[in-house]
Amino acid sequence: MRASELLGMHYTTVWNMMHKIREAMAVKVEREMLSGFVEIDDAFYGGRTKGKAGRALNNKRQVVVMVERLERGAGDVAMVMLHNQSGNAFKQAVLGHVEPMTHIRTDGYSYNSMLHGLGRLNMEKIGGVYCKEGPLKNVDTVISLSKRFLLGTYHQYCARAHLPRFLTEYIFRFNRRYEWCQLFSRLAAACALCPPVPYAAIS
Description:
Blueprint: H1 2-7, H2 11-29, E1 37-46, E2 60-70, E3 73-81, H3 87-95, E4 102-107, E5 121-126, H4 137-154, H5 163-174, H6 180-193, H7 199-202
Parallel strand pairs: 1-4, 4-5
Antiparallel strand pairs: 1-2, 2-3
Helix pairs in contact: 2-5, 2-6
């Protein structure tokens, strides 16, 4: 709504334009691979349901979150929304964004055992209770910041059909947070190189 007011354009026009920009971001983000030491965990995005909790809520979307662990903190990020909770979908999400010979760090939840036996990935399971400076501190921080981004910027949990695009915007911004002076030029280049996006693809 704010962008519509600033640009003096109809809300629907700005909505379509913003989603097309996010599609251009996605072309860049999908080519970025993580390497070195990578923390992996899953998170559930969606509205709250009174009196219910857990992984089986229909209004929640499961997202695999992968974050490079550097000496100074978090490196680049990859996030993939899963359309089902199968182990194969989980593994494909990791394989599609993590380079071979990468050291993976994850928690001891049984679901993460799906990553065992992949051959090209090293696995370290971390059990115990989470703490602020724990072994998954970077991925925990990214999950928290991404949820704040959705609620703080857009004041809502996004619909299932559009959540991947909003997460793409977050990833594009986060992975270029040390290059703010080049952010606009990189985004303009991504939009110029992106194939045309029909309305049917974003509606």
